[in-house]
Design a protein that fits this description.
It is a multi-pass membrane protein. It is found in: Membrane. This is Cation transporter HKT7. Keywords: Ion transport, Membrane, Transmembrane, Transmembrane helix, Transport. 59% of the residues lie in helices and 0% in strands. The chain has 4 domains: 89 residues; 196 residues, no CATH class; 76 residues, no CATH class; 94 residues, no CATH class. It contains 20 helices and no strands. The longest helix is centred in the middle third of the chain and has 37 residues. The chain is an all-alpha fold and 502 residues long. The two termini are 49 Å apart. It is globular and about 70 Å long.
């Protein structure tokens, strides 16, 4: 009886729960478990006694790959950094998309099994097995010739095999890209003694730094195990150049890179199917058509170049770039602009950057990762959109769904209310621009922050101590709770892309 009950619960959890509820359950569970483990582990020093709200805030930030910090990173022990590393890895969009692919394949297996479609009627050949089909999958293969080469597949079998194949391709992509990144960082630290000395003097293990930074960069989180983020390593251009591909391949350029990997194996029937079809057909939105991938690459490069030119002309003499030669400045600015979309690592104090650049960064953080200027839209897409709008008008509840900008405005207003005392007494730190940047950064799961400086206080507080964590670390508990909601909302924004009827 208990086995039957567990089986029914397992079936309902996998097949009945909708994607939105599954995402909420996943991130809430991840954040709570991460908080519990981080709290249970010993910090680096006994003097480190953060409050529970700050630890939970950090756990949510790592799980949602937002990198909004309320605790100095060097206060965490090596074991706590490993936990945060795990949260960032399993909270990354590519990893979650891979889980969805394997789950879809499992659902199809259960569906075919329940429908009695697994009476195998052909033999297994080594070549067939090597193309991703096991004994049960062969039940849907139409023909296998004498040489063992698979011939014609029906649509359902090819779709099923392609989904499984895609899951392993994405897994291989994640592992290979990050292993190359970690090996490159370790090699760089081994060859450049100055960079290694910085890491060693911080009391951080070289392997921990390499793995943590690469995982964070690939997941587009932005956490770095040093208090100053990448500011303390800004002069090491080689390290910045190693991390830039991790930032892009793990986020904005993933669809193009994935399509390139499939194209390399284009002789495979399943790779051909995936390249020929659309990701929407198999429920994998990261698999974009070839033309859209080209437009995406052009858009990503365009945004980085525009930001680079802005920064070059307005902030070439920024105090944060003092001491760098021309080459180091160029690489540093390129690194900064590449992070502006979704990663959040920084080499300068953003509070010293021109407001025009901060506004441009806010635009980049607000835009979805796969924003592209695709000029062509076929008639079927337009018709389906129009029909969808007609249907939505008939749903009263849909009329109360706001646009994402409206929600952000509401969050900013709420935080201005919770921090109204600080806005009045400390207007240079608690400016509306800084609050807006923090909120949009949390929504975009980026992690950019202007920080907090005791030097900017109009009425100097003798008890004030400068800390290397984000601006929101100085907010009230109510403000932090609102920003936690913003981080979750930002991580789930894909479910509200059609909002705004209200």
């Amino acid at each position: 009886m208990s086995k039957l009950l567990m089986s029914r619960c397992h079936h309902n959890l996998l097949f009945k729960i909708n994607a939105f509820s599954a995402y909420i359950l996943y991130f809430l569970s991840l954040s709570c478990v991460g908080f519990g483990v981080i709290k249970a582990l010993k910090p680096r020093t006994d003097e480190f006694t953060p409050r529970n709200i700050d630890l939970f805030y950090t756990s949510v930030s790592a799980a949602t790959v937002s990198s909004m910090s309320a605790v100095e990173m060097e206060a965490f022990s090596n074991a706590q950094l490993v936990v945060m590393m795990f949260l960032m890895f399993v909270g990354g969009e590519i990893f979650i998309s891979m889980l969805k692919v394997h789950l879809n394949a499992y659902k199809m297996t259960r569906k075919l099994r329940d429908e009695g479609g697994y009476e195998s009627h052909v033999s297994v050949s080594p070549l067939t097995a090597s193309h991703g089909f096991d004994q049960m999958e062969l039940s849907v293969v139409k023909v296998v010739d004498e040489t063992g080469s698979p011939q014609d597949f029906d649509d359902e079998s090819l779709k099923y095999g392609s989904i499984r194949f895609l899951g392993w391709v994405v897994l291989g992509y994640v592992v290979v890209v990050q292993i190359i990144g970690i090996a490159s960082v370790l090699l760089y630290l081994g060859l450049v003694s100055g960079a290694e000395n910085v890491v060693r003097n911080k009391g951080i293990k070289r392997l921990t730094f390499a793995v943590f930074t690469v995982v964070s960069s690939f997941a587009s989180c932005g956490f770095v195990p040093t208090n100053e983020n990448m500011v303390v390593l800004k002069e090491y251009s080689g390290l910045l150049l190693i991390l830039i591909p991790q930032l892009l391949l793990g986020n904005t350029l993933f669809p193009a890179a994935l399509r390139g990997v499939l194209w390399i194996d284009r002789r495979n029937n399943m790779a051909k199917y995936l390249l020929r079809g659309s990701g929407m057909e198999i429920g994998y939105t990261h698999l974009l058509p070839g033309v859209q991938c080209l437009m995406l690459v052009a858009t990503v490069v365009g945004f980085v170049l525009v930001g680079f030119v802005f920064f070059l002309f307005l902030e070439w003499n920024n105090a944060g770039l003092d001491g760098l030669n021309t080459y180091q400045k160029v690489v540093g600015i390129l690194f900064q602009c590449a992070n502006a979309r979704h990663a959040g690592e920084t080499i300068v104090d953003l509070s010293t950057v021109a407001p025009a650049i901060l506004v441009f960064f806010m635009l980049l953080m607000y835009l979805p990762p796969y924003t592209s200027f695709l000029p062509i839209e076929n008639d079927e897409q337009i018709t389906s959109k129009c029909e969808g709008k007609e249907e939505r008008r008939n749903t009263v509840v849909q009329n109360f769904i706001f646009s994402q900008l409206s929600y952000l405005a509401i969050f900013i207003i709420l935080i201005c209310i919770t921090e109204r005392k600080s806005l009045k007494e400390d207007p240079l730190n608690f400016s509306v621009l800084n609050i807006t940047l923090e909120v949009i950064s949390a929504y975009g799961n980026v992690g950019f922050t202007t920080g907090y400086s005791c030097d900017r206080q109009l009425r100097a507080d003798p008890k004030c101590v400068n800390k290397w964590y984000g601006f929101s670390g100085k907010w009230s508990d109510e403000g932090k709770i609102i920003l936690i909601i913003v981080m979750f909302f930002g991580r789930l924004k894909q479910f509200n892309t059609n909002g705004g009827r209200a």
